[in-house]
Amino acid sequence: MKTLVNHHHHLSRTHFYSPNLSNPSPHLHLHFNNIRPTHPPLCLPSPFTEMHSPERLQRESWMLPTTTTTHSSSNDIALQLPELKRLLQVLKERRGRDSKGGSFGNRPGRVSLVGTGPGDPELLTVKAIRAVEAADLVLYDRLVSNEVLGLVRADARLLYVGKTAGYHSRTQEEIHELLLSFAEAGANVVRLKGGDPLVFGRGGEEMDFLQQQGIQVKIIPGITSASGIAAELGIPLTHRGVANSVRFLTGHSRNGGTDPLHVAENAADPDSTLVIYMGLATLPSLVAKLMHHGLPPDTPAAAVERGTTAQQRIVFAELDSFVDEVKLAELVSPTLIIIGKVVALSPYWPHTSIDDSHVRKMEEACL
């Protein structure tokens, strides 16, 4: 494997990979440190629902007055509540008619918490597709790709409940009440979440709330970002003789700070793989803590923006230069971080790979 570091000019090791384009080979983007990188490198629209995206406006046009031409975060709820109430009333009336006709109209609806994977619509499970196609109302997060939302029936309703840093279209409590209200009205409600609903997706909170209210909840798992993105890059999260365990961490901080909440001394295990979700903002503190607790500075690391989509961008570096390289590439959310010796097993790792004979010796030691 070729080494991509020029020791005379110190090139950044930024690897841009676009798996869904017609050319499946990776795009290698090298730049000198004094040259500002193009951002994003492929100038493609986001595969996800951004706060004021035209796709979101089009999906939610049923809720907005026809005279509305702009969409402001300050009046989201005020604009949408009248139409939400009308939709709720329609569902209740339909349930009443079904009840008089002797059908199952007296029964409450159900809620399915559905994981959609890391972004590539081809990673959606068959069960998830069937749930989406059967939905009356779909509440979806930001990290559900536009292609997945294209599977929703034309007569179903979509409602964005996504969250980004500094902007929550709905509080978690409001999401709970929306799910409950429409399920009680007899609707088949699908709650779409990126990745897996029970891996840093707050799906457990929603399930617990609804079950306490007597609502039937079905969990349909999705491929979590750690698995989907690692597979895309050819990184085995565990590997005999290299990594005997894997740990998923959240990079979230308390009250929007820069210090990650859950990085303890035992996370700095050189024989384990760390996968950090939502860790871009707290990355400098996280890396400093890991090295302080003994993780070697030459530990391989990768940061993957918008993994498994056509807009995927990757930064590979050793831990001691990782923060600087990520900053230079100007990665944005969502970005997944993978730290551990297994990263060097990726065919796209731009440094000298782990010596094969060394790997074999470590594997034999485990026999």
TrEMBL record:
EC number(s) on file: 2.1.1.107
Chain ranges of the Tetrapyrrole methylase domain: 111-320
A molecular-function term among this protein's GO annotations: uroporphyrin-III C-methyltransferase activity
One of the GO BP terms on file: methylation
Annotated region described as Disordered, given as residue ranges: 95-116
Domain of life: Eukaryota
Keywords of this entry: Methyltransferase, Porphyrin biosynthesis, S-adenosyl-L-methionine, Transferase
InterPro entries: 4pyrrol_Mease (IPR000878), 4pyrrol_Methylase_sf (IPR035996), 4pyrrole_Mease_sub1 (IPR014777), 4pyrrole_Mease_sub2 (IPR014776), CobA/CysG_C (IPR006366), Siro_Cobalamin_biosynth (IPR050161), Uropor_MeTrfase_CS (IPR003043)
Enzyme type, top EC level: transferase
PANTHER family: S-ADENOSYL-L-METHIONINE-DEPENDENT UROPORPHYRINOGEN III METHYLTRANSFERASE, CHLOROPLASTIC, SIROHEME SYNTHASE-RELATED
Family: Belongs to the precorrin methyltransferase family.
Name of the protein this chain belongs to: uroporphyrinogen-III C-methyltransferase
Organism per entry: Acorus calamus
